[in-house]
Design goal:
Helix 8 packs parallel to helix 14. Strand 5 and strand 6 form a beta hairpin. The chain is globular and about 70 Å long. It is of the alpha/beta class and 732 residues long. It is built from 24 helices and 32 strands. Bound molecules: iron/sulfur cluster.
């Protein structure tokens, strides 16, 4: 164990079964406090998703609990501009005072709230309620907007419901073919790779669509490497061939879908030769992909950030869904479209109210019935609830102008937001910034007040994995002295801002309220409680409260029971969605006609190369936690620019030479990593680091018109060889 600068207090000395703090796979693990004050991670074989396997991030996660750089006291900005330790009383008082002042002077919408996809369901729920009930602001969104919102929007359009995977991971090895689009689970969630390995061992095939020959692509039966930003055209070309080769499942289309003729007409304009010119994927490769996908009884398409993080991400995912629908590969056993959600609670975090347009239970903020239902649970007038606010990037872009004060929880946008130098400048221009975090992240370092909060192993809460499986993360140790939970922070702030009730600090109490708020909504958790989660290794939503409840599963006043009579009928949860009908009014899935269009920024003489960004196996998102772990830093010490030998030769650059990558938004410098595993017209940078190698200095905040997802995955850059002495020049 490393970085053991802080003593950990055990709440028990036996192993506590819980889950990893990082990605959406939410691997099960056991945590045991050790005699030397550290926490040991051990295999938790009873959790079926990872069967005990963990990646390096999960295995080393306790190092952040005891890190010497962990915050243990509130910090406030002093007169000389430095952050200095302060009491909780002073720090909370400053935050409440500044929020109240801003609201009085500029109105409630001058207050912003920014959350995170790593927050538990209880925190995400409470943060949304805090923004709308205590602050009265519409200006709340979260970094999950950057993660999967295009897939969510496309799923809602096509199926009437967004749940990352509409089937459990265990179905993957049993299907006939999987197309993985813009996903690299070998690096982002390594324990999940076994599902694809088993698929191939069972005779199924794996197709990977990625501009890079990733570790996942190396294991594929077929690797298609389209030019970044052209996978919409690729899907349309495949659909064209499906029609031309007579592979449409006419009966399924007739019985279970609507809108096929328009989608078909749009696809027929995308001739394979035309698609080859756009994407760089040859016609024979396209034909082979169609053959592999269509010949088995069942098949799946899984997308991740590649197709989603584009200014046309919703249409791109929609094109892949159309391919599934035309071939009868959705809402049938072992077939379907799914999104491999990224962040630890990316799924639950978008269901319970921290998203700008949503109320708990995945309800729409614009729906009068939804407003009435949630307002009743919250004990407020429905008319007092604000309407939808700005999306994440738009909110960050408005800092210092329309939005004057910001409360930020569980996010580090200085590293993770697009056009990051501009976002950093916007954060600096605020009248007041308060940040809750476990370490002094790059964003926390800009704050006027920083509050040190508990970490995953020190608090109980629920998350919802990429499968839609609601899980209980249990507290295994006590937090260090001087640290409070996010729920305690929101309770204290609500109290200071005049709302004394409705913000409990016990996670289970919050979850009980969340159950009532979600009841009857698309993401219905009302039949789930902590006891069930502990007994069942998670429950898949929707899971409505029992309608013949015996007082254990039903919720009084919600399901019409009195809580004392009736037979116990426990809803089993819903591992597989859409098998009988889709979640639309008529039960049919919707084709959405889409056509190829260029990325927001295409290469030109000044910026002739495409940049795409992503992750490496040993770091996680903005790196706020993983960059504090020695073992992970040794494995992935810093950013790099991956490029093809032909491009490197043109630049006169060798492996390790510093390269400047310049876009219209700024300049980043990192060493070259030369590989034949990337297209010659494309460079790749991981986005986990701040400073001169910050990839998001370069990325384009062009937004998808539906999901408001920024175009992280493609922008135009030029690449220059530089001397080591040359300094980078970020520009906002
Ligand atoms: Fe944690 Fe994800 Fe690694 Fe599993 S794959 S150990 S959930 S980071």
């Amino acid at each position: 164990m490393q970085n053991t600068g802080m003593q950990i207090t055990a709440t028990r000395h036996t192993a506590t079964p819980t889950h990893c703090p990082y990605c959406a796979l939410q691997c099960g693990m056991n945590l045991t406090p050790a005699a030397d004050g550290t926490v040991e991670v051990s295999e938790r074989a009873d959790f079926p998703v990872n069967r005990g396997a963990l990646c390096g991030k999960g295995r080393t996660a306790p190092a952040v609990l005891s890190s010497r750089v962990r915050l243990t006291s509130p910090l406030v900005r002093s007169g000389d501009g430095t952050l200095v330790p302060a009491s909780w009383e002073e720090a909370l008082g400053r935050i409440a005072g500044n929020l109240a002042r801003t609201r009085a002077e500029h109105g409630a919408d001058a207050l912003g709230v920014f959350g995170g996809g790593g927050l538990t369901n209880e925190k995400a729920y409470t943060l949304g309620k805090f923004a709308r009930v205590v602050l009265g602001t519409s200006q709340i969104d979260y970094n999950g907007r950057f993660c999967m919102s295009s897939a969510a929007a496309a799923g809602v359009k096509a199926f009437g419901l967004d749940r990352g995977l509409p089937f459990p991971l265990e179905d993957i090895p049993k299907t006939g073919c999987v197309i993985l689009v813009g996903s690299n689970p070998a690096e982002t969630m390594p324990p999940s790779l076994r599902y694809f390995t088993e698929l191939r061992e069972n005779g199924g095939t794996l197709i990977v669509v990625d501009p890079r020959r990733t570790k996942t692509a190396e294991q594929a039966d077929l690797h298609l490497a389209p030019r970044p930003g052209t996978d919409l055209a690729l899907a349309l070309g495949m659909l064209h061939l499906v029609v031309a080769e007579g592979r449409v499942d006419e009966r399924y289309v007739e019985e279970r879908t609507a809108g096929w003729e328009d989608a078909r007409a749009a696809a027929m304009g995308h001739w394979p030769e035309y698609v080859e010119r756009i994407t760089g994927v040859s016609v024979p490769e396209l034909r082979e992909a169609v053959r592999l996908f269509c010949e088995p009884e069942a098949a799946m398409v899984l997308t991740a950030r590649g197709p989603e993080q584009q200014a046309k991400g919703t249409d791109t995912v929609g094109a892949w869904i159309n391919l599934c629908l035309a071939t009868g590969r959705a809402g049938r056993p072992l077939s379907g479209y799914g999104c491999l959600t990224g962040q630890g609670n990316g799924q639950g975090g978008r269901e319970h109210g921290q998203k700008a347009d949503q109320l708990p239970g995945y309800r729409k903020l614009t729906d009068p019935a939804a407003r009435r239902h949630v307002a009743e649970v919250w004990g407020v007038d429905p008319d007092s609830l604000p309407g939808p606010g700005r999306s994440a990037y738009e909110l960050l872009d408005a800092l210092g102008t329309d939005i004057r004060s910001l409360l930020l929880m569980g996010s580090n946008p200085v590293v993770s937001a697009p056009r990051a130098a501009h976002v950093e400048e916007r954060l600096r221009s605020l009248d007041f910034l308060a940040v809750c975090d476990v370490v002094l992240s790059e964003t926390a370092a800009l704050a006027d007040v920083v509050l040190p909060v508990t970490q995953w192993a020190e608090e109980t809460g629920t998350t919802t994995s990429l499968e839609g499986r609601v899980l209980l993360r249990r507290r295994a140790i006590s937090p260090p002295d001087g640290i409070r939970s996010d729920l305690e922070v929101l309770h204290e702030l609500a109290d200071r801002l005049g709302v004394e009730k409705g913000f409990p600090t016990e996670p289970e109490e919050v979850f009980e309220e969340l159950r009532r708020a979600s009841a009857g909504g698309p993401a219905d958790y009302s039949g789930i409680d902590y006891r069930r989660l502990a007994e069942e290794n998670g429950v898949f939503w929707p899971c409505p409260a029992s309608d013949g409840a015996d007082g254990t599963d039903g919720i009084d006043g919600i399901d019409g029971t009195d809580g004392t009579t009736g037979a116990a009928v426990r809803h089993p949860g819903t591992p597989r969605l859409f098998l009988d009908r889709f979640a639309t009014d008529d039960g049919r899935a919707r084709f959405v006609p889409v056509s190829h269009r260029p990325s927001a920024e295409e290469p030109d003489d000044e910026y002739p190369v495409l940049l795409t960004t992503g992750r490496v196996v040993a770091q996680y998102q903005s790196g706020a936690q993983t960059r504090r772990v020695d073992e992970l830093n040794a494995a992935a010490p810093g950013p790099f620019v991956e490029l093809h030998p032909r491009l490197a030769a043109r630049l006169g650059a060798a492996d390790g030479d510093p390269l400047a990558v310049v876009s219209r938004r700024g300049r980043a410098v990192a060493p070259a990593r030369v590989t034949t595993g990337i297209r010659p017209d494309t460079v790749f940078m991981p986005f986990h680091w701040a400073g001169e190698g910050r990839a998001n200095t370069l990325t384009n905040p062009a937004l998808d018109p539906t999901s408001r997802m920024p175009e992280f995955k493609v922008c135009a850059v030029r690449v220059e060889a530089v001397t080591k002495a040359a300094a980078p020049a970020d520009t906002p």
